[in-house]
Amino acid sequence: MERLDKSVASSLTRFYIVALCVVAMLTISGLFLIRRTINNLNHDSRMVNVAGRQRMLSQRLTKLAILNVGQIKHSDSAQFDSLLTIWKESHENLANKKLPVENGLVTWKSAALDSMFLDLMPVFDSIYTNFSLVNDSKVAASAKAEALNLILDKEPLFLAKMDKIVFQFDKESFQRLENLERIEWILDIMTILVLFAEGLLIFRPVVNTTRRVVRMLTESENALQLSNQKLKEANHQLLEAQNDLLRVEEEKYELQLAEDRIRASALIEGQEEERKRFALELHDGIGQMLTGLKLHAEKLKSVQFHDQKNQKRFEQLVTLIQDIIQTTRQISFNLMPSVLSDFGLSAALRLLCEQTAELSGIKIEFDGDAQKRVEMGRPTEIGLYRIAQEALNNAVKHANADKIKIKLEQNKNRIILEIADDGKGFLISNLKSEDGIFLTRNGMENIRTRTQLLNGEMEIVSEVDSGTQLIVRVDL
């Protein structure tokens, strides 16, 4: 069955191609004939115009000859020589069957026209010779008068013969047009016959085959719809199972994420408590002992040392004790500044800027109201302070900045913390992995984790040689 269908399809295709080729050939032939006939008609019109102009030129030359022989003044500005030359060249071109046009030469084949031009040639030669005599200034007046009489005698015959030539041109043109019409009728009838045969031998079998194929496709479509319905039900059940599994996985992921947050929060809270305890130990323990040691050393300043070297060593020892006390106080402050719990975040950030500027030699400004304490929870206050402390340390160590600015403002129920520097900056893409997660670099992971624990938003804006800006937004 399949081989039979292929054979029928191949046979129909061949018939169809042959029919199309025949129709195309007939159409192209008709177009070619029409184009050729139009060109011939254009050429015929050109020849008729030239032949008609020959009659007009002969009459005009005759008029000029009469005026010249009779020495009659006239207003005709035409040159007798140029008109005579044009008349002669046009006649020769017509007689030689080669009439020049813009795109070549007009040629024709007609025994009747050849006979007419051959019969006209003696009359033309006689008139042309007499025109030349009339135009020759060396010829006597009597000879010119005789030549004029001959011209007047031959001109009616010339005009009659030229009329016959023009009528013959028109007749032959009309015959070519009738031939084209007959050929067009033949081509149209052949095209109709080819189309009728194409419909009978090609389209009718194609229609029958199409009907059979449509019937088979309808039966297959019905069976396919039934199968699709069953498959749809199975897919629906599968989707429900997938949704249940996805929901379980999401709940598991959210639970794990919550556990990680709680663990991280507990870890950070434990770190802060340990920082606080260690800061108290430094301040109340080692700090007090170092202070006592300093007091005892200062009392010994009044003692006179016999050796100058021992005196100098003692002064160095006092200075060293003072430096140790200052370093211990700085470490205690960094671990847990008391000003944070006593006066709030603004005051602590201002003090942090002043101490860091004094130690680093970098100009650090704080933009905020240090006298007004923003009311917020203790974890939020500590978290924002640690974020600012981490970002400030990063700017001091890595940015090569000349100026750093920390800004703290409250916008309704939102706290906005901004740390900006004018340092070398960096590409944000170098700070993120392929998944868009911040890499553990320069303390950014610590800042990101603290921001997430505060349910806040973090934004980093940085360009190479254009500085860096870190913005943290936390809702109260």
What is the topological layout?
Elements: H1 2-69, H2 80-95, E1 99-101, E2 104-106, H3 111-135, H4 141-299, H5 308-335, H6 338-343, H7 345-360, E3 363-367, H8 378-398, E4 403-411, E5 414-421, H9 444-453, E6 457-462, E7 468-475
Helix pairs in contact: 1-2, 1-4, 2-3, 3-4, 4-5, 7-8, 8-9
Helical/strand content category? alpha+beta
**Helical content (DSSP H or I, runs of 4+):** over 70%
State the separation between the terminal residues, measured CA to CA.
81 Å
Number of strands: 7
> With helices defined by DSSP (H or I, 4 residues minimum), what is the helix count?
9
- Could you give a short account of the major beta sheet? 5 strands, mixed
Give the SSE order as H and E letters: HHEEHHHHHEHEEHEE
Q: Mind telling me the C-alpha Rg?
A: 58 Å
Can you give keywords for this protein?
single chain; 476 residues; alpha+beta; five-stranded mixed β-sheet; two-stranded antiparallel ribbon; 9 helices; 73% helix; 9% strand; elongated; nucleotide-binding; HATPase_C_sf
Describe the protein in words.
The chain starts with a helix and ends with a strand. Helix 1 crosses helix 4 and helix 2 (80-95) runs antiparallel to helix 3. With 476 residues, it is α+β, with helices and mostly antiparallel strands. The strands form two sheets. A five-stranded mixed beta sheet has the order 3-4-5-7-6, covered by helices on one side. It has a two-stranded antiparallel sheet with strand order 1-2. Helix 8 links the parallel strand 3 (363-367) and strand 4 (403-411). It has helices at 2-69, 80-95, 111-135, 141-299, 308-335, 338-343, 345-360, 378-398, 444-453, and strands spanning 99-101, 104-106, 363-367, 403-411, 414-421, 457-462, 468-475. The protein is elongated.
